[in-house]
Amino acid sequence: MSTTTKTQQTEAVLLDMDGTLVDHFETICRCYQYAAEEMGKTPPTYDQVKREVGGSMPVTIRKFFSEDELEEAKKHWNQRFDEIHLEGVILLKGARELLQALDKKGIQAAVFTNKTGSHSRNIIDSLGLTDSFTLVLGAEDTPYRKPQVELSQIVLERLGVNASDAILIGDSPFDIQSAHCVGMTSFCVPTGSHSVQELKEARADHIFESLQEIADTVFS
C-alpha cells in the first residue's frame, strides 16, 4: 500500500517525544551527569546519553550505573529532572506545521512516549501545544512502556481507532516495534538517536528527513 493510500484512511497519528517531536537531549544528559557526579562517578558524555535514550529512563540508566547503584542514581536523576525538565526544550523542524496539517484534515494527534506522562504534559503545555493533542500518554500513566504491546493497545483504545487507521511517528526501533506489534504503520525520522540505516534495518515502513517532510509530502 502506498503512503498516499494509507494516509487517506488515517484517523490518528501518534508522535514520540524525544528525538521526534522535541530535542530534549541536553537536559536529559544533564540529569545523568548530575546523578553520576553526586555518586562520585565519571559523568557520561552527551553523545553517550543521546545514543541510549528511547527505552525510558529506568532502561537507559542501567547503561551508566551498576545494579547496586540504580536506586540511588534514579533518585538523583528524578530530583534533577523535576527541577529542570522545562529547560532546553527545542521543538523540532516541522512539528507545528505537521500538527496544523493534521488538524485541518480532522486527524487526531497524540503523544506516545516513554518520557514520564506528567513531565510530557508539562512540556507540551509550555510549548503551547496542549490543544493540538487529543491524548498525551507516557511512562507511569500505565504499568507499561514501549514497545510492550499492551501500551500500544491502550493508546489505540483511548483514541478509539483501529491499528490499521493509525500511524506512529518515531525515531527509534522502540517506536517501530511499538507500531508493528499491533499492526500500525511506522513512519520514522533520523532526528534522534538512530541513523537512516539503523531505521531501515529495524524495518521502518517509511523514513523521512524530518516532520517537515511528512507535513509537506504526506499530509499537505
CATH-scheme architecture of the largest domain: 3-Layer(aba) Sandwich
Structural class label:
alpha/beta
Shape, principal axes of CA atoms: globular
Q: What proportion strand?
A: 15-25%
The CATH superfamily of the largest domain turns out to be HAD superfamily/HAD-like
Mean pLDDT: 95
Task: Please explain how this structure is put together.
The model has no long low-confidence stretch (mean pLDDT 95). Helix 2 packs across helix 5 (70-84) and helix 6 runs parallel beside helix 11 (211-217). By secondary structure, this protein is of the alpha/beta class. The protein is 45% helix and 15% strand. It has helices at residues 3-8, 25-38, 46-52, 57-60, 70-84, 95-104, 117-126, 149-159, 173-180, 196-201, 211-217; strands at 12-15, 22-23, 90-91, 108-116, 135-139, 166-170, 185-188, 206-207. The protein has 2 domains: 3-23 and 91-217, Rossmann fold (3-Layer(aba) Sandwich), CATH 3.40.50; 25-84, DNA polymerase, domain 1. It starts with a helix and ends with a helix. The chain is built from 11 helices and 8 strands. The strands form 2 sheets. It has a 6-stranded parallel sheet.
Please provide a brief summary of the model:
Helices cover 45% and strands 15% of the residues.
Spell out the key features of this protein.
2 domains, 8 strands, 220 residues, DNA polymerase, domain 1, alpha/beta, 45% helix, Rossmann fold, two-stranded antiparallel ribbon, 6-stranded parallel β-sheet, single chain
SSE map:
Elements: H1 3-8, E1 12-15, E2 22-23, H2 25-38, H3 46-52, H4 57-60, H5 70-84, E3 90-91, H6 95-104, E4 108-116, H7 117-126, E5 135-139, H8 149-159, E6 166-170, H9 173-180, E7 185-188, H10 196-201, E8 206-207, H11 211-217
Parallel strand pairs: 1-4, 1-6, 4-5, 6-7, 7-8
Antiparallel strand pairs: 2-3
